[in-house]
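ok here's Phospholipase B-like:
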Amino acid sequence: LRQWKTYEFSEGRNVTMSSYPGFVHSTDDFMVNGHGVFMMSTSIPDYSPPTMQALKPTGVPGFVQLLIATYLTTTPQEYADVWTKDNNGALMNQAMIVDLRRAQAALDAGMPLPPHTFVMCENYPTVYECGDMTWWLNSGKPWISFDVAYFNSTRGVSGSNIRQVERRNMGVCARPSSVAAPLERTMQYATDVTSMFYAMRHNNYPHDPLLVIPGCNQSQSRWVQFNCSDEPALHTTPVLTFGARQDLAPLHGHYGTASEQFLTALFGSVDGKATSARMLADPANMTVILQNGPTSVQHPPFSFSEFYASHPAINDTTPRRGIPDRLDFSPVVVRPLSGFSAQQRACAPGGGSVA
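and the structure:
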């Protein structure tokens, strides 16, 4: 159950974000403020146990940092400066911050994005680093995080550069990541907001040969560790795509324990969101296309009862108050206070809309 929330403050410091009922902060880390600063973040893994042992109970909690930085700042560089202040690194994430107004002005003028339009920050308990990544977008490539640390400092601290670690996780944490191919392929077809939305929902398992498990011999990569079945449903996976749905994976695979992470589980992409600099330009009408629930573009909608009936060995122990059995939501277009009538919006001092 998700909520699309807007906090209205003075001086244009409004904060609009995807969130959950009862949460003051986003937790989904998809946020934009009234100055056109957009932030989204993703968790990055830690493969080095000493990193967490170095964590100190000081500084500001990560969820507070993200919300306050979104509230206070007017540029991505300001965001980075606030984000790194009193940062104890416990959140271990990669924050991607974009100046929407500068981006749209450059696009309208047919010019390259100016420096510091796209700034990225990463942190772990012992280190943080921010950098201007605008050059990446100006090169014509989309930025795809792969949930993998990028900067040498953060990769070093997290253990992501250790060959044994890369081998153990079949190159997922390597740069380039072993899971890059299907995501980069899909992004080639994202030419506008609509196609971007459906790229985020794409999952053509088991008919997509690029979804091969990196450790399987069918991948023909340096990460091969074992021979897998020639059946596509067993050597490819519904996890390595934007619209990940691990509930579609098999219960048992014909490969070693290193790939048990690709067996069936309640895991995956639980929503899809797409927007643009132009759609977010007007603080009063920031517009996002979103869809709650796992993708159902190329597969039937997910059903809790059907999943547990077909997987009796998996216990149904999680309460789901307010959530329907079948997650068959349609895409919706949301704006600040979009759940209100025109008269309610005109009179409302602040609030949010449910999506």
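+1. The two ends are 9 Å apart (CA to CA).
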